[in-house]
């Protein structure tokens, strides 16, 4: 079977700082990583390939340096990597991104064989929207299975797939058909280490690089800023609260007195809370 | 493939997209819609929160507020209609069909996009739940319109455009996003970000019934079963009035017991910061913050939590935030209301004991005498 995994290279947001004066993001020196949620999708794809045979193609859209994350994915054992890179994609919102990626997946299908499953992560840690997966599915007219916690079975001959997906208040068991798009939930598996052989292959593999034209994208008005219906008008820092927390003085007090003092302070500020707590807790 | 659709709207060129030049065919799009999320008979509270917010937007625009109810032909679906009116809707768009019994993307996307194409709303709001996000993404792509995820603030600006503000870069910055030249303007909002409006029994208003133009055999996906969460208690975290949470400052998994004991003593839910989930000390559904749950309790007690921005965005709406931290410079003191610089591991048992003393009916009687 042929599996396509769409991944994104993101700044490691734990290490992003905002400039205290200009309120701009200081990206310099911030390392980039594969979006952590995408690793669950990639691992699941590799497991399916190991179980059913076939190939895993990883795809990313981004600047030329996004090649780093593709190499990483090859190191984990992906069979092929495609980088979709072109200045026309700059400024894409989720609709424009899903357009470009869906076109690239169609091209991957023509070039290397049609995918049976397309995977993405649940969402990215920089955009956080969870919209690109559903967007790709809609554009390629694939069934979408989001927040998938487990792939219960695949019947390649019958073109059937059964999955468990998280939903509000529980887990749904769904039967659907191939090809489909799956967004994988976090914590569902653990990324393998990747073999020495894979590491050697990754270093030597050629990454397929496509411009918009090479990916067969003719209508550039659907890409980048022009293809994005949403417009970011303003970026600003959250207003800081003027006063700091009122401190309970801890000097020379027993823990018991401190606790009583804190409780008085709480109920002075929120008098309605006391009867409620007494009712619930006692 | 919808991208090959010949009547795809022609986007304005380049930076022109920054200006509002609403094409003729969108000019009669009016009214604010809220998707009323209904799964297994229950309306998700986020839908009411959105009706409260939608009411404000509709009043500013001088238009009507509509609920969209999609569900199976059952009493629960009818109840959802009544609830939409009770929480402020002027009218309800309504489709009931057996195909809408359990959530599946295909029939819900079809139902929603048909309604939008027929009745043309200018704003469409959905909850950023697993269901809402699944649906919003495919509806926006089908309609080729803009969608802003996880908004924390919605407003209407001078020219009547929806200004949707959301955190970016992990919450360290906010950005305001517009969908100027496409309709509807779509946004999702997480549960508990907007306040719950007052409920008022106002009876059933105008209901516009629509038919679902889809039959079962056209739907590829079948629901084989549903397994409810066994730990149903965890679902309450977002809606609890009192929450006690622990962070890495507690030092070890064994000290989480201190948080749980305090929570039990005052009838609170307990939660945690993210590292505790990553260490496997707490299950993921107890995580509070940007990538966990947003909470809005009357009282939030944070023990050994530094108050990183990703945690802050999840608790900011609490009425009273109490921070217990050994570091007087911890960022949590910048947004907590009450602070106490002390060792949480030693202090939590004392606090639990003091609450129990004060709150137990027995000790109250004693104090009164
Ligand atoms: C993409 C992304 C998403 C994230 N999402 C979330 C999220 O949803 N929720 C979340 O919480 N975090 C999230 N984080 C992580 C966040 O940035 C912080 O790392 C995290 O909140 C820190 O947790 P903490 O305060 O428990 O630990 P620490 O930062 O280690 O702080 C521990 C605190 O405890 C204090 N302390 C130490 N000993 C004691 C003691 N004995 N008594 C009292 N205090 C003590 C210390 O002074 C310190 O302030 C996210 C990060 C990223 C990159």
List keywords for this structure.
heterodimer, A: 282 residues, alpha/beta, globular, B: 369 residues, Rossmann fold, seven-stranded parallel beta sheet, five-stranded parallel beta sheet, disordered N terminus, binds flavin-adenine dinucleotide, ET-Flavoprotein_bsu_CS (chain A), transport (chain A), electron transport (chain A), ETF_beta_N (chain A), ETF_a/b_N (chain A)
Q: What name goes with the CATH superfamily of the largest domain in chain B?
A: HUPs
The strands making up the biggest β-sheet of chain B line up spatially as: 7-11-6-1-4-5-12
Rg result of chain A: 24 Å
Spatial strand order of the main sheet of chain A: 11-10-9-12-8-1-6-7-13
Q: Structural class per helix/strand content of chain A?
A: alpha/beta
Number of strands of chain B: 18
Largest sheet of chain A: 9 strands, mixed
User: How many strand units of chain A?
Assistant: 15
Assign a percent range to the helix content of chain B: 25-40%
Q: How many helices of chain A does DSSP assign?
A: 7
**Which ions and ligands are bound to the chains?**
flavin-adenine dinucleotide
**CATH class category name of the largest domain in chain B:** Alpha Beta
The quaternary organization reads as heterodimer
**Rg of chain B computed from alpha carbons, rounded to a whole number of angstroms:** 23 Å
Mean pLDDT of chain B: 91
Keywords (chain B): Electron transport, FAD, Flavoprotein, Transport
Protein name (chain B): Electron transfer flavoprotein subunit alpha/FixB family protein
Family (chain B): Belongs to the ETF alpha-subunit/FixB family.
Organism (chain B): Mesorhizobium onobrychidis
């Amino acid at each position: 079977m042929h599996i396509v995994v769409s991944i994104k290279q993101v700044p490691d947001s734990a290490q992003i700082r905002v400039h205290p004066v200009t309120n701009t993001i200081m990206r310099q020196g911030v390392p980039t990583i594969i979006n952590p949620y995408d690793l669950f999708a990639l691992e699941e794809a590799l497991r399916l390939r190991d179980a059913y045979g076939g190939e895993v193609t990883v795809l990313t859209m981004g600047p030329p340096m996004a090649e780093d994350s593709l190499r990483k994915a090859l190191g984990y054992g992906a069979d092929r990597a495609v980088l979709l890179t072109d200045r026309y994609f700059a400024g894409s919102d989720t609709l424009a991104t899903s357009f470009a990626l869906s076109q690239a997946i169609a091209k991957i299908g023509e070039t290397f064989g049609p995918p049976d499953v397309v995977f993405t992560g649940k969402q990215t840690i920089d955009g956080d929207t969870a919209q690109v997966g559903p967007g790709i599915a809609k554009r390629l007219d694939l069934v979408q299975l989001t927040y998938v916690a487990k792939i219960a079975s695949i019947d390649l001959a019958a073109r059937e797939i059964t999955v468990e997906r998280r939903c509000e208040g529980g887990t749904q068991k769904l039967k659907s058909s191939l090809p489909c798009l799956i967004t994988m939930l976090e914590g569902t598996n653990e990324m393998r280490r990747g073999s020495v052989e894979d590491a050697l292959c990754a270093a030597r593999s050629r990454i397929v690089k496509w411009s918009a034209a090479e990916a067969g994208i003719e209508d550039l008005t659907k890409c980048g800023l022009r293809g994005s219906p949403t417009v970011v008008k303003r970026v600003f820092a959250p207003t800081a609260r003027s006063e700091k927390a009122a401190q309970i003085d801890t000097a020379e007090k027993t823990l018991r007195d401190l606790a009583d003092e804190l409780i008085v302070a709480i109920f002075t500020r929120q008098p309605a809370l006391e009867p409620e707590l007494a009712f619930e807790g006692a | 493939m919808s991208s090959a659709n010949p009547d795809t709207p022609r986007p304005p060129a380049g930076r022109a997209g920054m200006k509002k030049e609403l094409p003729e065919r969108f000019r009669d799009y009016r009214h604010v819609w809220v998707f009323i999320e209904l799964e297994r008979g229950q309306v998700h509270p986020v839908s009411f929160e959105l009706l409260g917010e939608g009411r404000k937007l509709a009043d500013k625009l001088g238009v009507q507020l509509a609920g969209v109810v999609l569900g199976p032909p059952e009493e629960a679906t009818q109840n959802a209609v009544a609830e939409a009116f009770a929480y402020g809707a002027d009218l309800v768009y309504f489709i009931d069909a057996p195909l809408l019994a359990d959530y599946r993307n295909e029939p819900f996307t079809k139902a929603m996009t048909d309604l939008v194409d027929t009745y043309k709303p200018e704003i469409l709001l959905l909850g950023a739940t697993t269901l809402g996000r699944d649906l919003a993404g495919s509806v926006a792509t089908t309609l080729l319109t803009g969608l802003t995820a996880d908004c924390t603030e919605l407003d209407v600006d001078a020219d009547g455009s929806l200004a949707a503000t959301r955190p970016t870069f992990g919450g360290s910055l906010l950005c305001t996003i517009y969908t100027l030249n496409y309709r509807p303007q779509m946004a999702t909002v997480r549960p508990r970000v907007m306040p719950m409006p007052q409920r008022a029994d106002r009876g059933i208003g105008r209901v516009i019934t629509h038919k679902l133009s889809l039959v079962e055999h056209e739907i590829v996906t079948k629901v084989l079963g549903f397994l409810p969460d066994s730990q149903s208690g965890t679902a309450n975290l977002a809606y609890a009035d009192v929450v006690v949470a622990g962070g890495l400052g507690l030092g070890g998994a064994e000290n989480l017991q201190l948080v749980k004991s305090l929570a039990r003593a005052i009838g609170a839910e307990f939660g945690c910061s993210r590292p505790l989930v990553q260490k496997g000390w707490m299950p993921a559904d107890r995580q509070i913050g940007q990538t966990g749950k947003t909470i809005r309790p009357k009282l939030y007690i944070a023990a050994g939590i530094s108050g990183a921005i990703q945690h802050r965005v999840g608790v900011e709406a609490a009425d009273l935030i109490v921070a217990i931290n050994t570091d007087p410079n911890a960022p949590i003191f910048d947004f907590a209301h009450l602070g106490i610089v002390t060792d949480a591991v030693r202090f939590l048992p004392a606090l639990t004991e003091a609450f129990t003393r004060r709150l137990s009916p027995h000790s109250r009687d004693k104090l009164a005498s």
